[in-house]
Backbone:
């Protein structure tokens, strides 16, 4: 009987139909998968398609048994003279069984073999980017208020366990740009975006906010708040909690927004100060210092204002050319006061870490940064500064990991992307340094730090023409870039051109300063060891980051490592 059934299946061309259907099913899967991913359909859709195609096999077997195609026409197949003894239910079960048996290899491959070695899919953690709230107030100078409120909501949401929040710098990089939510979500790698507006009129404030899903652009939640300005902290807390409820992660039990001061005037001054501090310019830092001081004069117990003032003083050394001897004591005084007032404030611990770094107390700096991260895991600046601490203490592998974490939290921060390029450079991985520096330059072609990393990497690779081309492409030729050009000219053998440019930048150093490390590198490239060591000593004295952060790491100092004077500098900075 088995032979006759097999012969009948062959006569009715059932096997040919199975092969044809199998080829067609495979083709459908090849087409449907890229379409599904392109339209952002869930993975379950493909599973449904596979099951549907598998169920088609018994149907094809049955139809092939009953019908045949002859001369372009569908005809019912007549039974053979010696017909199979199988009929009725037994025949139906046989045909279905053959179809299911034919479908089994494909189903097993898709649901079993294909999944071997693949990690189990996990539900992605909720993620959000809080875009800068639009200032709808009649007074455009209230921009600082809408920006400050945005930053405080970002900080509040960062305290929620299980919620990934994009850092301020990356969120603010979209300010004023007319991009759709899906584009922003893709660039920041988040599932949701919060948009909002602030209208301030006298003592009244109106805040409108809407939470939007990136995948489909649908509103998940929206609300408008009309309150008195004195209730701004409660508004921010209510807004943050509403967002968390919409996203459904685990909510912390305590208030998300803590009232940091009882004075709305002091809070207003603090927001203005933070607005100017974030500009990282000489004039911005000057104005920020004055505003933080006014806030403290109104509320001496305002920890955030003390932390902001400490940062103003310490950052003025790098960004405003202030003397370290004058700024360091002030920065330390206010960082300690901030910790005394609120030991649970992440910003205060980060400020204290920066002060410890200027005192070459790398261990305490690390402790403070680790504490800041513990208090606020989503604080990108703390991860960034901790990576720099790890690098300067020669733990470059850990530094790369920590800097990558900072970049994930703040993906469009040019300073973090540039710092990551510098760490690759210090690791002597010049190829990756070039790649990362180019990414940073795409974010801000006018920022010198990624250009410096790119030029140094090309120079170490002996690609001097490309290094000079990178300098030429800068929007403006700063003192730092002119000094960098002198260094590259010296390394490429153009001693006369290098010396002429070096004399020029040194002559104007008092009014147009540049990193002392650049001057030391150029003198060393010209074979002038004494002059190089003199600039290194000045850099250590003034806490110049181009010197302090490079002494124990970068390849250009290798010729000086046997010199006792260089070793004394290493000892002074406690980098042994």
Residues:
């Amino acid at each position: 009987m088995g032979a006759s059934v097999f012969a009948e299946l062959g006569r009715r061309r059932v096997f040919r139909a199975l092969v044809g259907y199998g080829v067609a099913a495979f083709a459908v899967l090849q087409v449907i998968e890229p379409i599904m991913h392109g339209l952002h359909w869930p993975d379950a859709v493909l599973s449904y398609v596979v099951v549907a195609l598998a169920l088609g096999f018994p149907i094809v077997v049955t139809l092939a048994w009953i019908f045949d195609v002859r001369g372009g026409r569908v005809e019912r197949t007549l039974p053979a003279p010696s017909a199979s003894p199988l009929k009725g239910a037994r025949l139906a079960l046989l045909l279905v069984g053959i179809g299911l048996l034919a479908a089994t290899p494909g189903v097993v491959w898709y649901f079993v073999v294909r999944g071997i070695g693949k990690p189990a899919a996990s539900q992605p953690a909720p993620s959000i980017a809080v875009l800068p709230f639009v200032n709808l107030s009649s007074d455009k100078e209230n921009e600082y208020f809408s920006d400050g409120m945005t930053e405080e909501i970002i900080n509040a949401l960062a305290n929620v366990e299980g919620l990934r929040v994009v850092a301020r710098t990356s969120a603010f990089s979209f300010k004023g740009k007319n991009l759709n939510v899906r584009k922003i979500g893709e660039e920041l790698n988040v599932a949701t975006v919060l948009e909002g507006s602030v209208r301030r009129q006298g003592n009244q404030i109106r805040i409108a906010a809407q939470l939007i899903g990136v995948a489909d652009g649908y509103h998940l939640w929206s609300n408008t708040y009309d309150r008195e300005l004195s209730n701004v902290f409660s508004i921010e807390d209510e807004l943050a909690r509403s967002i968390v409820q919409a996203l459904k992660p685990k909510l912390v039990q305590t208030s998300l927004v803590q009232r940091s001061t009882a004075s709305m005037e002091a809070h207003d001054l603090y927001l203005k100060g933070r607005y100017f501090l974030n500009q990282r310019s000489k004039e911005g830092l000057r104005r920020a210092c004055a505003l933080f001081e006014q806030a403290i004069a109104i509320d001496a117990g305002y920890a955030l204002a003390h932390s902001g003032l400490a940062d103003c003083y310490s950052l003025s050394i790098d960004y405003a050319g202030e003397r370290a001897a004058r700024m360091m004591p002030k920065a330390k005084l206010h960082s300690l006061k901030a910790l005394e007032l609120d030991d649970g404030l992440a910003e205060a611990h980060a400020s204290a870490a920066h002060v410890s770094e200027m005192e070459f107390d790398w261990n305490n700096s690390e402790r403070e940064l680790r504490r800041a991260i513990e208090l606020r895991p989503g604080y990108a600046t703390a991860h960034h500064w901790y990576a720099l601490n790890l690098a300067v203490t020669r733990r470059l592998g850990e530094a790369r990991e920590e800097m990558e974490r900072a970049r994930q939290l703040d993906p469009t921060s040019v300073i973090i992307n540039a710092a990551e390029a510098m760490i690759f450079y210090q690791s002597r991985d010049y190829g990756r340094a070039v790649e990362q520096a180019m990414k940073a330059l795409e974010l801000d072609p006018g920022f010198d730090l990624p250009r410096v990393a790119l030029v140094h990497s090309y120079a170490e690779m002996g690609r001097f023409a490309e290094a000079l081309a990178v300098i030429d492409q800068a929007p403006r030729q700063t003192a730092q870039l002119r000094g960098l050009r002198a260094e590259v000219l010296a390394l490429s053998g153009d001693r006369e051109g290098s010396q002429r440019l070096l004399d020029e930048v040194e002559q104007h150093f008092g009014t147009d300063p540049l990193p002392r490390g650049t001057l030391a590198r150029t003198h060393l490239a010209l074979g002038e060891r004494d002059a190089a060591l003199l600039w290194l000593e000045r850099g250590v004295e003034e806490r110049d980051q181009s010197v302090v952060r490079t002494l124990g790491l970068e390849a250009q100092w290798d010729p000086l490592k046997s010199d006792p004077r260089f070793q004394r500098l290493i000892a002074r900075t406690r980098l042994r």
